[in-house]
Amino acid sequence: MLFSYKAITKSGEERLGNIDAVNEDVAISSLQRRDLVIVSIRSADKIPIFERDITLLSRVSNKDIVILSRQIATLFEAQVSALRSFKLLAAESENRTLSRKISEVGDDLQSGMSISQALNKHPSVFSPFYVNMVRSGEESGKLSETFSYLADYMERTYELTSKVRGALAYPAFVLSIFVIIMILLMTKVVPKLADVLTGTGQELPVYTKIIIGISDFLVNYGLFLFVLLIIGGVFLWQYTKTGVISFSKFKIKLPLFGELFRKIYLARISDNMYTMLSSGIPMIKSIEISASIVGNDVYKNILLDAANSIKTGNTMSGALVGYREIPAIMIQMIKVGEETGQLANILQKLAKFYKREVDTAIETLISLIEPILMVLLGLGVGIVLAAVLIPIYNIAGGIN
C-alpha cells in the first residue's frame, strides 16, 4: 500500500514523499528508522483529488533528467556521498515531482538500497536504460563517469527530439491556422452570403451548392462533429499507446516523414547501444534495453528477435540481416566492428552519421513543406470564396 507522508528531519528540514508498506504502522516504523519525525501520514488513495499533484502540470522532462545527471556526476567527482548528493538535489530541484522522487531515492539509499535499486522504483522518471547504466556504474565503480555518460547521451537525445519537434511544429501550426480560417469562413461568412444567393431564386452552380451544404452542416452539427473528433482523438491516442504494430509500420511508411522517422530510430538504436556497450553492459542486455526504449514496435521486434538469435550463437550483424528496416550499410559497419573488436566505436560513428542524416532530412522537409502548405492554404480559401463570390458576380452582372 502506498502512503504519503509529511515529516521533519533532525536538521529541521520539511520532507514530503511516498512510501510503500504493508500498513500504516510499518510505514511509520520505516520512516522513524530514517530519523524522520512524522508530522502526518495517510494512504495515498484517501488524499482528496484537489490536494494531489497534477502530473501533467509538473512532469519531469528529459531536460530535467539531463541537468540532474550532470549535477550528480559533479557531486560524485567532488567526493560527495550518494546520500548527501540526492538530499542536496532534492532540496534544490525546482520541479516538484522530480524533487519528491529524488527525496524518495535518498530515503531508500538511507535504508540500505543501492542507487540503481532506488531509481528502479520510479520508472516514470528513470527509464530501464538509465537504471541499467547506473547499475553498470555501480558494478564497475565508475559512477561519476557513468552519470557523465548519461548526461551526454540524454543531451544528444534531447537535441535530436527538439529538432524533430521543431520540424513538425511548423506544419502543425500552419495546418491549424488553415483549419481555423476554413471554419470561420464556413460558419460566419458563407451562411450570410448563402442567404443572399438563395434569396435571388436563381439556380446555383453545383460547386456552390456543395460549399453551402458543408456550411449548413457545420453550423447545425459542428458541435457534435467537434465532440466526435475529440472522442476519436482520445481513442486514437490510447490505440497508439498500446503499441499496436500496424501504427508503427504506418509511421515509418508515411510520405515525406517516413524516412525521417526511420533515421531517428536508427540513430536512437546506435546511440543507445554505443552508450551501454561502452559502460560494460553485455550485448544481449544492451539490445533488449534498446528494444524497450526505441519507441517503435517494428524496430522493437527486430531487436528482440536479434537478441534471441544472438543467444543461439549468431553475431549482431548476422541477426540483423534480412530486415528491410535495417540498412545494409549499418549491418556492414556493425560487421566490421565485430571483426575488429571496435563495435562500440562503430556504433558511435553510426549514431553521428544518422544524426546528421536526421538534420539533413529535417532541412529538406521544411524546404518542401513550406511552399506546399502555402499553396494548399491559398487553394482551400480561394475555392471557398470563388464558389460563393462567382454566383454573386453573375447576379450583379445580370442586373446591370
Characterise this structure.
The chain is mainly alpha-helical. It has 3 domains: 2-52, no CATH class; 59-154, Type II secretion system (T2SS), domain F (Receptor-associated Protein), CATH 1.20.81.30; 171-400, Type II secretion system (T2SS), domain F (Receptor-associated Protein, Up-down Bundle), CATH 1.20.81. The protein has 15 helices and 3 strands. The protein has a 3-stranded antiparallel sheet with strand order 2-1-3. Helix 8 packs antiparallel against helix 15. It is extended, with a radius of gyration of 29 Å.
Keywords:
400 residues; mainly alpha; Receptor-associated Protein; 3 domains; three-stranded antiparallel beta sheet; 15 helices; 3 strands; 74% helix
- Unreliable spans: 49-57
Work out the number of β strands.
3
Overall geometric form:
extended
Structural class: mainly alpha
Second rung of CATH, namely the architecture of the largest domain? Up-down Bundle
Question: Which sequence of SSEs, written as H and E, runs from N to C?
Answer: EEHEHHHHHHHHHHHHHH
Describe this structure in a few short sentences:
The protein has 15 helices and three strands. It has 400 residues and is mainly alpha-helical.
Question: Helix and strand layout, with pairings?
Answer:
Elements: E1 2-8, E2 14-20, H1 24-33, E3 37-43, H2 62-77, H3 82-92, H4 96-110, H5 115-120, H6 128-140, H7 143-199, H8 206-241, H9 245-252, H10 257-278, H11 283-293, H12 297-311, H13 316-320, H14 328-340, H15 343-399
Helix pairs in contact: 2-3, 2-7, 3-4, 6-7, 7-8, 7-10, 7-15, 8-15, 10-11, 10-15, 11-12, 14-15
